[in-house]
Design brief:
three-stranded antiparallel β-sheet
């Protein structure tokens, strides 16, 4: 499961600054990028937090 919050600020006609924070709760061994090669019980959970900061420009 995940939850995210983000903001966008258009500080000029062709410039935007965006920030987003996402919190993931992983259950079991996970898969893909969040996979684990360790012995993990299906009842175990792990937390992963991701912060993104983007500067967009239109030209």
């Amino acid at each position: 499961s995940s939850a995210a919050v983000g903001v966008r600020w258009d500080f000029a006609a062709n410039w935007a600054l965006k920030a987003q924070f996402t919190a993931f709760e992983l259950r079991g061994p996970g898969y893909g990028m969040w996979g684990s090669d360790q012995q993990v019980s299906i009842e175990d959970t792990r937390d992963v937090n991701v912060f993104n900061l983007n500067l967009n420009v239109i030209f």
